[in-house]
Design goal:
This protein is α+β, with helices and mostly antiparallel strands. The chain has helices at residues 9-22, 27-42, 52-61, 91-109, 126-133, 187-196, 216-221, 230-245, 252-259, 277-280, 288-301, 309-321, 327-337, and strands spanning 5-7, 72-73, 81-85, 111-120, 138-142, 164-168, 176-180, 205-206, 212-213, 223-224, 267-275, 323-325. The two termini are 18 Å apart. InterPro entries: Mal/L-sulf/L-lact_DH-like_ah (IPR043144), Mal/L-sulf/L-lact_DH-like_NADP (IPR043143), Mal/L-sulfo/L-lacto_DH-like_sf (IPR036111), Malate/L-lactate_DH-like (IPR003767).
């Protein structure tokens, strides 16, 4: 067993990229995938960190993702809709292609949408949101998943975990960002509890008979629950409609039918919206950014924590100290770098 180790963000990203290149991904696919995985590890979001590598490789081995896909940006039709066909590849590569065009269109028109079709999605949404807030834009992102969440009052999985994220630019400071699954927790959290042999908190899941359970195995065989009861269920349904039906792509039940299993990564589309505060506030008195700072400052002034503050604090620690991986995590990387290693 290797020892625990500490890596710079760049060094760990190189290792993860190398794993994917050795597995057959093109550089265009491997680079963005590695970057978003290491962003999760850097920000101490373990459920979206290097834990995700194995799921990517299992999906590749199952033939459900195209490792050398070349995403295609649709011809400009003069509208606010930017469309990228991921061609069966990973979503981060498609976003990397479409994001600059989305930002340019949003600054020009005030609002624009990026539609990504035919992609394999596994990653957190905040890296995409932060890429847009860094360009002075407010942004939203959402996507379905595969059926693993029961609708409020239901007894079987139908909805996906259906993440939703929002960001507001704050100049030189960290943006205001939230990113959460519309299930009580992300599915990765259930899996991490299973691996650790820990029971789930009550209210996270039901078993295959629709009964409440704290057993991770029973939860994975049954269904997770939406956050906030009927309110979370309604938001999750909205995401199925907007980022599934509306963009001509799969809803979560269709994605599960296509994959046949929840053991690999979901396949569907994604919707990202970008807004120019300057354009929306044009002609009105005052500065929208200054107004927002006053409002966010009032929240902090009450002692409330803004979302993502813990992520940003973790990011600052990593900048000073590096990313620490325990011995098991280092062993995982070494096994996956070995061409003869198993997934």
């Amino acid at each position: 067993m290797p020892d625990a180790a500490t890596y710079s963000t760049d060094a760990l990203e190189n290792i993860v990229r190398d794993i994917f290149l050795r597995a057959g991904l093109s550089a265009q696919q491997a680079g963005p995938v590695a970057a978003v995985i290491v962003a999760g590890e850097r920000d101490n979001c373990k459920s979206h960190g290097i834990y995700r590598i194995e799921g990517c490789l299992r999906t590749l081995a199952a033939g459900k993702v195209q490792p050398r896909a070349v995403p295609v940006l649709a011809e400009d039709d003069g509208t606010a809709v930017v469309r990228v066909d991921a061609r069966g590849g990973f979503s981060p590569a498609a976003f990397a292609l479409g994001a600059p065009v989305l930002a340019e269109r949003a600054h020009k028109l005030g609002v624009a949408a990026l539609v990504i079709n035919d992609c394999t999605h596994f990653s957190a949404l905040w890296p995409e949101i932060e890429a847009l807030t860094a360009r002075g834009l407010a942004a939203m992102a959402m996507c379905p998943s595969y059926s693993s969440v029961a609708p409020s009052g239901g007894t079987a999985p139908l909805l996906g975990t259906n993440p939703f994220a929002f960001g507001w630019p704050r100049g030189e400071g960290h943006p205001y960002v939230f990113d959460f699954a519309t299930s009580v927790v992300a599915r990765g959290e259930i899996e991490l509890h299973r691996r650790a042999g820990k029971p789930l908190p009550e209210g996270w899941a039901i078993d295959s008979d629709g009964r409440p359970t704290t057993d991770p195995d029973a939860a994975l065989a049954g269904a997770m629950l939406p956050f906030g009861g009927h309110k979370g269920s309604a938001i999750s349904t909205m995401i199925e409609l907007l980022a599934g039906c509306m963009i001509g792509d799969m809803t979560s039940d269709a994605a599960l039918d296509y994959l046949g299993t929840t053991a690999i990564l979901p396949h569907h589309g994604e919707l990202i919206l970008a807004f120019s505060p300057a354009r929306f506030a044009a002609g009105r008195p005052g500065d929208p950014f200054a107004r927002a700072e006053a409002f966010l400052g009032a929240i902090s002034g009450q002692g409330a924590r803004l979302p993502s503050q813990r992520r940003f604090a973790a990011r600052a620690r990593v900048a000073a100290e590096g990313i620490h991986l325990n011995a098991d995590e280092v062993a995982l990387l070494e096994r996956l770098r070995d061409p003869g290693g198993s997934v």
